[in-house]
Amino acid sequence: MYQKNIIYHSKKQEDLSLRQLLKKWLIPKKWQHFLRIQHDVLINQKYHPFNTIVKDKDEITLKFNFPPRTQQHYLPGHDPVQVAYEDNDIIVVNKAAGKKTHPNTNQEDDSLMNDVESYLKNGHPYMVHRIDMETSGLVLISKTPYLVPIFNRQLSSKKLHRQYLAVVKLNNPIAERGTIDLPIDQDPEDVRKRMVKDSGLRAVTEYNVIKKNSNYALLNLNLLTGRTHQLRVHLSYCGWPIVNDPLYNSDPKNGKLLLFAYKLVFEEPFTGNLKIIEAKLSKDMYNLICAYFKQPKSSSNPDN
């Protein structure tokens, strides 16, 4: 059973009933039903009807005494993990390029989730989102299955969003900033690939140019939807393929894919407090970016 004790802090002097508060916390309706009929939601250690107004500094106790929607199990991995943030409920890990986020079969043990399984020792990881194998950067992982549906709802409502850095080849001119709103579907000729196609799902990417020269640009990318290969497909379609992309850049690959998930923004479950996690560029990624823009290495880089 997963239990959470929260001291409620009223914001903007709002008067919320217990039912409204659970909805605001994005707790699924079915779970609200279980909490009510099992009397597993308490205000100051006592059960109250769902129309009870919750007061500032009331203690809310949630007992998730029912099966979660999913149970994920992974074999222990072999590699250490680089932790960017951790608390009792979640862990944010900086994934290396070339490492899969999750295994494709129960027999695999070489993915990030396998490595986090080993790191947690007495706990288990539950996947919230993923990034491509070739992409490096931040991945949010829950330590309990009961938070996964809440984070899924944050993803859908864009309360949880991700930002990336990418170095792209400028085969076409690029504006200083813009929004790419193009649907993405499976490439019928290559099962590994996706493509811009009218029959696909809507995909939206915001970008702005941090720096550029005649051949390359360093972009900040805001992922507003989470389609497979979205950034890689969108940028390639516009004539700005990511450097060292083996699927969507026709130039020979010479090193790591220059796409880095450097920022995660989400709401802390049960509080609504905004959480911003940022990762430092690894030394090799920093040096690669410097090489494309001929910027002298600076001692200000924290990993130098």
UniProtKB/TrEMBL annotation:
Cited SUPFAM superfamilies: Pseudouridine synthase
Gene Ontology biological process terms from the UniProt entry: enzyme-directed rRNA pseudouridine synthesis
Catalytic reaction list: a uridine in RNA = a pseudouridine in RNA
Database matches in Pfam families: PseudoU_synth_2
Domain Pseudouridine synthase RsuA/RluA-like, first and last residues per copy: 89-236
Top-rank taxon, per record: Bacteria
Record GO terms (molecular function): catalytic activity, acting on RNA; pseudouridine synthase activity; RNA binding
Position of the signal peptide: none
Protein family according to the UniProt entry: Belongs to the pseudouridine synthase RluA family.
Name of the featured protein: RNA pseudouridylate synthase
Organism (species): Companilactobacillus alimentarius DSM 20249
